[in-house]
Every structure is written in C-alpha cells, then in structure tokens.
Amino acid sequence: MSAFEQLQQQLKQLPGLGFRSAERLALHLLVEQPESLVALMAALQAAAASVRRCSRCGHLAEGDLCPICANPKRDAGVVCVVEHVPDLVALERAGTYHGVYHVLHGKLSPMHGVGPEHLNLATLFTRVTEGGVRELILALANDVEGEATCHYVTQHLPAGSGVKVTRIGFGLPSGGGVLYADPVTLKSALDGRRDYV
Q1: Predicted model pTM
Q2: Position 182 pLDDT exceeds 80
Q3: Which of 13, 70, 121, 173 has the most neighbouring CB atoms within 10 Å?
Q4: Domains of the chain with bracketed CATH
Q5: How far are the Cα atoms of 47, 131, 151, 186 from residue 22, in angstroms, in the given order?
C-alpha cells in the first residue's frame, strides 16, 4: 500500500469522512496546500502531548482541571451529566447554562459490551459523595440506552446524598441527542427539565 493510500485509510477512519472525503482531504493536504500539512502535524502532536481528560468532569483539559471546572463563577452545585464532549460543547454554545458538567464518555449498552465500568461513573459518584452537589441534570439521549443510563445513575447515587435528579427532555425529539439541537431547543430543554425520580 502506498503512502498516499495509507494516509487516505487513516483519514477515512475519522468520523464523518467516507472514501471520497478522505481522498479530497489527502489531496488537499499533499497537493493543493502542502504548507498546511506541517502546521497540522505540529498541532496534532501538541494536542496529543498536552490535552487530557479533566480529573473532575472528564472534559478536555490541558491541566488537572478543565476551564469550566476551574471557573469559580460556575455553580458547582448543579452538575449536567452528558454522554460526550460534543454534547457539552453544544450546551455551552447555547450560553444559558451556568453550572458545571460531567462527561460519561458514552452510555450503557449491553448489546455493544458497554457496562458501567466503561463509563466515567465512579468520579460522578465521588463528586456526589464529597458533597456540594445539589442537583444532577441528566442530559442524555432520549433512547433506550440513555434511559438505562439515567436509571443506573439514580439507582446508584450514594444513600442519603439528598441530590435532586432532573432530566432534560422538553424540546428534544425522541431518539435525538443534545449534539444536534439548536440553542433555542437546548434552552427549552434545560428550562423544562423535570424530576427524574
């Protein structure tokens, strides 16, 4: 396999890129804009060396904590639980939420071999145990796996934690996720959350 074909194969593995898109991107980098290839490689290496998961919430961080967890102006007592980092980014883009987050990096899916041990749940329960959390907003997809994950979280909260658990849902279509909702829909979903338990 040629070096070009290897590059194309690697690009094709990225989400949202098919064969033609990977081919166009590879040609763009190698033929049309070869000077941008060096900058791209440097940026990828720098990100790989410095970006990690926030030790508290699982978001992207370049230090121990992400900028949201480190921000004293955020309400640390309200924690919005999301599946993936892009969901967090979508909620932040809406600009109406001022609490903090917790990224699970997936949802329970026994059919795909994803159990509780594969998700960022231990640190969530630790946050609740340590105190200071008043409310968990479950902002997970409105599908079977999302519901199962919400149920698991509520059933495994530390006894006597007194944490209010709410679930967004108003404004989000059944089977839809946070990532694809517009800011107005996300605001409605957050404002229209309801008790989950």
Answers
A1: 0.80
A2: no
A3: 121
A4: 3-50 (1.10.8.420), 60-195 (3.40.1360.10)
A5: 21, 48, 40, 32
